[in-house]
């Protein structure tokens, strides 16, 4: 069997650069070397290059190729693990589409839509059993009025970049006085922000992927943090949060959640592997949608690898299925 050349795309332009690098390292360690020649390609604003053993090799963006020791290498596949722009918002996907190179994530349209939290909430509205917190979308160019926000939404509120990930730039505020600094913090990450009512309950995250042609929902992870909410520090600092995989859910609730997640995946025309975050309301356990992550973290300790292992699946086989399914 001929081995395929796989470009493992990492880095990006967002505050999640280092998270992406860690994801790439774990993926590279779990791609079958008998099937795939893996080249880690780092994407920066000023350069795209193969992070080789000896020295960096620049990518020829005209056809997305490398020339190493006089030999031109074209890619059969791109495995995108860039969190945030340009790997999670459709930009890289559009470029690869024009070159005819298959990849592991959602397409350009779905990636762009799901990167926008407000747009995504609008599209999933009406799915049976799915609820969403009341919210307002604010654009930097239009200005904002904290009095109007306070009059229309109930405190506490989450302020978050509309197109961000890993909770970068996110704040929880309890009164009008906290709104302006939280809004400025979020605008530092994005020109659009989402102001959303706090939903009190148990927080979960759950992967879903199309494996061997079948939409497969992975076991759920419950996230219990010692902080006020699951922010960047809580996600990436050891000991701050506890992640329970598989989560303690009744078989009936587990099945109901799987059905809702499957409908979200299909309605948004997702492809490959995504992770959906949600809350179960404190008393009723009603499902409240948070967001879709189309390039979820893949470090050894990340949620998707945890869930793959909890499902009794092999991570190398899982990644291989994502590649072969897209091909």
Explain this structure to me?
The radius of gyration is 20 Å and the shape is globular. By secondary structure, the protein is α+β, with helices and mostly antiparallel strands. Helix content is 29%, strand content 30%. The chain starts with a strand and ends with a helix. The protein has 10 helices and 17 strands.
Secondary structure layout:
Blueprint: E1 4-11, H1 17-29, E2 36-43, E3 48-50, E4 57-58, E5 65-68, E6 71-74, E7 77-80, H2 91-99, H3 108-115, H4 117-124, E8 130-132, E9 135-139, H5 146-152, E10 157-161, E11 171-173, H6 179-187, E12 192-197, E13 201-211, E14 214-225, H7 232-236, E15 241-244, H8 251-267, E16 273-281, E17 287-293, H9 303-310, H10 315-326
Parallel strand pairs: 1-2, 1-7, 8-17
Antiparallel strand pairs: 2-3, 3-4, 5-6, 9-12, 10-11, 10-12, 13-14, 13-16, 14-15, 16-17
């Amino acid at each position: 069997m001929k081995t395929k050349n796989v470009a493992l795309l990492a880095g990006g332009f967002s505050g999640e650069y280092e998270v992406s690098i860690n994801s790439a390292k774990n993926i590279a360690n779990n791609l079958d070397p008998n099937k795939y020649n893996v080249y880690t390609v780092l994407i920066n604003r000023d350069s795209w290059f193969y992070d080789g053993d000896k020295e960096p090799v620049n990518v020829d963006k005209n056809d997305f190729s490398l020339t190493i020791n006089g030999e031109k290498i074209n890619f059969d596949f791109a495995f995108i693990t860039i969190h945030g722009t340009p790997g999670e918002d459709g930009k890289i996907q559009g470029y690869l589409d024009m070159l005819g190179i298959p990849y592991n994530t959602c397409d350009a349209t779905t990636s762009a839509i799901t990167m926008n939290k407000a747009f995504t909430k609008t599209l999933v509205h009406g799915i049976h059993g799915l609820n969403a917190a009341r919210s307002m979308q604010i654009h930097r160019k239009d200005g904002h009025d904290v009095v109007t926000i306070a009059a229309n939404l109930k405190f506490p509120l989450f302020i978050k970049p509309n197109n961000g990930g890993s909770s970068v730039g996110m704040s929880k505020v309890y009164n009008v006085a906290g709104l302006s600094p939280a809004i400025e913090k979020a605008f530092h990450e994005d020109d659009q922000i989402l102001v959303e009512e706090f939903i009190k309950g148990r927080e979960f995250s759950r992967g879903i992927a199309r494996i061997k042609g079948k939409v497969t929902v992975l076991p759920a992870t419950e996230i219990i943090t010692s902080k006020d909410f699951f922010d960047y520090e809580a996600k990436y600092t050891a000991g701050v949060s506890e992640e329970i995989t598989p989560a303690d859910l009744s078989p009936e609730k587990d099945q109901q959640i799987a059905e809702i997640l499957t409908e979200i995946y299909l309605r948004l025309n997702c492809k490959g592997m995504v992770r959906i975050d949600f809350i179960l309301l404190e008393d009723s356990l009603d499902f409240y949608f948070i967001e879709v992550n189309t390039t979820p973290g893949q470090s050894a300790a990340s949620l998707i690898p945890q869930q793959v292992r909890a499902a009794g699946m092999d991570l190398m086989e899982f990644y291989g299925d994502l590649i072969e399914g897209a091909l």
